[in-house]
Amino acid sequence: MNMKLDPWGSVNIDDYSKLFDEFGIMPFEDICSELPDPHRYMRRKIIFGHRSYDLIKDAMKNKEPFSVMSGFMPTGGGHLGHKMVMEEIIWHQKMGGDAFVGIADREAYSVRGISWEKCRQIGIEDYIVSLIALGFEPDGHIYFQSGSENVKDLAFELSAKANFSELSAIYGFSGETNVAHMVSAITQSADILQPQLSEYGGPKPTVIPVGADQDPHMRLTRGLAHKMNMFRIEGREDKDKNKFFSVRSKAAPEGSLAEIAERLPWDTKLFEGHIDVYGADDYNKLLETVREVEIENGGYAFVPPSSTYHRFMSGLQGGKMSSSIPDSLISLKEDPKLAAKKVKRAKTGGRVSLEEQKKLGGEADKCSVYELLMFHLVEDDNELAEIYDECVGGKRMCGTCKALASELMEEFLTDHQEKRELAKDRLDDYGL
Ligand code: SF4
């Protein structure tokens, strides 16, 4: 099956493992065990995949600089799905990452026709206030795409490296697609690469936590990062099977390759357009030297961004969670008591009768109430495992879960909304 991921459309990705084969996304569980204190989304395989997350893991471990970046399109109604991304950003910020949050108003304007004033109002009220209430610290960066000169300038430079065929292949753009929509795709690449600009400390690993439908942006941006870099480092082998590195450039300023060769402690051979490096036993040192010369010559030296991919929650009535079906989701501004009632009406994985449930057990894997507990409401893994075991073992009835989940949801929303009121008075601390 040929899967097409569309960040602007609604998708139903029913088999996440296909993403590993078709798009080269790696399973997250392999890397999760190496993290000191993984987030519950990581422990519970809700974050199921990644690209190059080993760079982030190593930066966290070695206390080296890294960034986390994600964005929200201000189309209205921050809900539990958005809370997932917010929590992932905040977790990486707590782990030492320099955190960036972009409000994608250019995207909302070009794709949904939302006015700039409305974008600003929704961006602050529905996303930024909740982000702060959930614990985003003021040393992070919150910005609107339309107000960031950095992002606009970088988007322009990136657009010189992208062409229509490439964008159509990734996003399915056609002759009818408006040009602003294409500009907004490139603007998101600028959002993703912005943390590596010199004013934010230069090149560094950057992780973008997203839903699986956002992978097209990642593929485009990783490709652009490679194209923007002045030099390319390749591992090669000579005819005697000796391994060596080759540093190549089509447009390097005169003398810059010789400058790299001079700074390296290994044997080098200089050719027209490239140098070969023999006996290099420290790839990071090689990379660092190449980057130094790159930046001194006014070039970019982007590390292709890393990403994590999370599963989507299903709708409370089963099927997809959708902003156009209010009963399918819980908004972060929703009346806590009404939200608790919604939880009580949610679709469960219960059987048709109590007798059958006792005999066969419930189907927790198909239960939206269990999903709420797993994604948002129960932090303790043992407590969650107990609920699961009791359900599938026929010892737990759906009424107990619904009562628990609705009570916890009411508590969470009451607390979150109190924190939102406090956050509204702290917007100045975030430069807003
Ligand atoms: Fe879902 Fe709980 Fe019912 Fe199991 S017992 S199907 S987890 S509501």
UniProtKB/TrEMBL annotation:
Gene3D superfamilies assigned to the protein according to its UniProt record, in alphabetical order: HUPs (3.40.50.620), Tyrosyl-Transfer RNA Synthetase (1.10.240.10)
> Motif span ('KMSKS' region)?
320-324
Question: Which cellular compartments is it found in?
Answer: Cytoplasm
Which reactions is this enzyme annotated as catalysing? Answer: tRNA(Trp) + L-tryptophan + ATP = L-tryptophyl-tRNA(Trp) + AMP + diphosphate + H(+)
Q: Name one GO molecular function term.
A: tryptophan-tRNA ligase activity
Name the domain of life: Archaea
Look up keyword ATP-binding and say if it applies: yes
Give the EC class as a word.
ligase
**GO biological process terms, semicolon-separated:** tryptophanyl-tRNA aminoacylation
Cellular component per GO? cytoplasm
Chain's role: Catalyzes the attachment of tryptophan to tRNA(Trp).
Give the similarity note.
Answer: Belongs to the class-I aminoacyl-tRNA synthetase family.
Q: Which NCBIfam families match?
A: PRK12285.1-3
Which HAMAP family does this chain map to?
Trp_tRNA_synth_A
Quote the PANTHER family the UniProt record gives: TRYPTOPHAN--TRNA LIGASE, TRYPTOPHANYL-TRNA SYNTHETASE
Protein name, UniProt field: Tryptophan--tRNA ligase
Gene that encodes the chain: trpS
